[in-house]
Amino acid sequence: MTYAILGGLESSVERTAAELAKLIGVPAPHFSRARRELEAAGYLECTHAMGQVKFFRLGEAVTAHRVVVPLLSRPTG
What we know:
- The structure is a single chain.
- By secondary structure, the protein is an alpha+beta fold.
- Helix content is about 40%, strand content about 15%.
- It is built from four helices and two strands.
- It has a two-stranded antiparallel sheet.
- β1 and β2 form a beta hairpin.
- α2 (about 15-25) packs across α3 (about 30-40).
- The longest helix has 13 residues, at about 30-40.
- The protein is globular.
- The termini are far apart.
């Protein structure tokens, strides 16, 4: 639910696990464990990573349809 409110379908949630854990009132390790389980079940999907920081949005199991994001193209020339 937190991901749906903060990210929605088109964008990822750009808050740390520690911030989200504090927001919902659970210890950060519990939040991270639950997030990994939700990702494995298809409820969350990783949109991208910057170093070791991953960004997530709602997955297909929640939305009931495939979310397609166009790839960025590089200029050739």
